[in-house]
Design a protein that fits this description.
Elements lengths: L14 H22 L2 H51 L6 E5 L19 E2 L6 E4 L2 E5 L6 E10 L1 E10 L8 E11 L2 E9 L5 E8 L9 E3 L4 E4 L12 E8 L4 E9 L10 E5 L8 E9 L8 E11 L2
Antiparallel strand pairs: 1-16, 2-5, 3-4, 4-16, 5-15, 6-12, 6-16, 7-8, 7-15, 8-9, 9-10, 9-11, 12-13, 13-14
């Protein structure tokens, strides 16, 4: 009959203690399996938890990166806008897309500009000519005359022109419009320069569009600013006046203008400015000049236009 081998040290193992430990271990495993599932399922759950935590951490990192990128781009956008605004305050420096010094002679119409294509004029062509380094418009009373360059279409225009009343200068008031965006014969943004027969000069902005709820085709966008008062000498020749208008962007469009005597320095700031989002005008357009004599006798009067330059606005 075999005999149990004594444990090390000569003592017999305590079988009751071994049994209790075994039962305890089995009970713990059964409890874990009942609560957490079988071992493969617990491993899968742990893996999913790890993936969830990793996904949360990755999402947080990506969100922080997006916020940081947006912040940096916002700062850069503000800096770029400030740089454009600063550039707009100084003399025009953008790329020239149209220019005309009228160094030619024509008896009907204005012919072709030195840069920017051929001038298109409203009828009758006999009321337009080029001589003495100027494009000339004859201005019958209450008849608007217009000239524009349809070959150049801009959505960021910076236009400068110099105008001067000539024959019949004291014969009524003349309203001159330097157009920075002309999208059709009835739709444009313009700087309006009023030259009165006493020599005073006023400036404002307006838009022309299809009649809206107000029923008006042309609406003023800015107050009218009187730049210069009446001449001390009513018999003196009117001085040439330079006008600069910028029409920038779409939805909204920024429109601003200034004017000064051409023999003086250009002002740093803009005299009038406005924003507008009229639907029909939110697209590129051409540049041009128009004028109408609104009062005075039936005698002839004319307007000279010189040094027209159109640039891409900053």
């Amino acid at each position: 009959m075999s005999r149990a081998t004594p444990a090390k040290g000569g003592q017999m193992p305590n079988r009751d203690l071994i049994l209790l430990e075994t039962v305890k271990t089995h009970r713990a495993r059964l409890t874990s399996a009942f609560v957490y599932g079988e071992l493969p399922e617990r491993r899968l759950a742990n893996d999913n938890v790890r993936r969830l935590i990793g996904g949360i951490v990755l999402t947080a990192v990506l969100c922080a990166g997006c916020v940081g990128f947006s912040f940096v781009m916002g700062i850069r956008g503000d800096q770029a806008a400030a740089a454009r605004e600063k550039a707009a305050l100084g003399p025009a420096t953008g790329e020239i897309v149209a220019a005309d010094t009228f160094d030619r002679r024509t008896s009907e119409g204005w012919g072709g500009a030195e840069r920017g294509g051929k001038w298109r004029v409203t009828d009758p062509a006999r009321d337009y000519s080029v001589a003495g380094g100027a494009g000339v418009m004859q201005l019958p009373e209450d008849k608007r005359r217009s000239a524009y360059l349809p070959a150049q279409l801009l959505d960021r225009s910076d236009v400068t022109a110099t105008v001067q009343r000539g024959d019949g200068a004291r014969n009524g008031s003349v309203n001159v419009a330097v157009t920075g965006r002309r999208v059709s014969s009835t739709q444009d943004y313009r700087a309006n320069l009023r030259l009165t027969d006493d020599g005073s000069v006023a400036l404002s902005l307006s838009r022309r569009a299809e009649p809206g709820s107000s029923g008006q085709r042309e609406e003023q966008l800015s107050p009218t600013v009187i730049l210069f008062g009446a001449d001390d000498d009513p018999e003196s020749d009117p001085q040439p006046v330079a006008v600069r208008i910028q029409v920038i962007g779409t939805s909204p469009t920024t429109v601003r203008a200034k004017a000064w005597f051409a023999n003086g320095a250009e002002p740093t700031g803009w005299t009038v400015s406005a924003t507008d989002s009229t639907a029909g005008l939110q697209r590129p357009g051409s540049i041009g000049v128009s004028a109408i004599r609104t009062s005075g006798s039936k005698a002839d009067a004319d307007l000279s236009v010189t040094d027209v330059v159109a640039r891409v606005a900053p």
